[in-house]
Specification:
The chain has 146 residues and is mainly alpha-helical. It contains 4 helices and no strands.
């Protein structure tokens, strides 16, 4: 493992440990976002399959849009948190060893691109969930017509 050495020749352990803590949080948020995408596809597929087998097609198809919207908002929240902790990571990365205080407050970085609303409507999230909803709409039209 590479360790940056400061002027006194000491290994910058505090800084590395703080960055490791932040990286664990960032990885956890990214993993939650990934799992939400998977669960949204599974739940939608299950509801659409169930609607194909019942007489209440329109009701089940309508209900299948609710979890997609809920997962979209939750996914936006996790991506927002991930972005905030990346900003904390970058701030810690630029600090000197003697300034490391293990601060984990990410709210100092809210604003601009780092808002929950802007994250919900970011390109990657919008593309995924809109494509899922468009696919659901085509499947629903097929199920209702045939």
């Amino acid at each position: 493992m590479y360790h940056k050495i400061n002027t006194e020749g000491e290994i910058m352990e505090k800084k590395l440990k703080h960055l490791e803590f932040l990286q664990v949080i960032i990885n956890r948020m990214a993993n939650c976002s990934f799992l939400l995408k998977g669960w949204s596809v599974i739940i939608v597929a299950a509801l659409l399959a169930l609607s194909a087998a019942t007489q209440e097609k329109i009701a089940l198809i309508s209900i299948s849009f609710v979890p997609v919207i809920v997962f979209w908002i939750l996914d936006g929240y996790y991506l927002w948190q991930e972005r905030l902790f990346r900003a904390v990571y970058n701030a810690v990365r630029k600090k000197d060893e003697n300034e490391i205080d293990f601060e984990m407050n990410s709210m100092d970085f809210v604003g601009g691109r780092n808002t929950w609303l802007s994250t919900i409507f970011s390109e990657t999230i919008v593309l995924f969930y809109l494509s899922l909803m468009i696919t659901m709409t085509f499947v629903a039209m097929y199920l209702i017509c045939y």
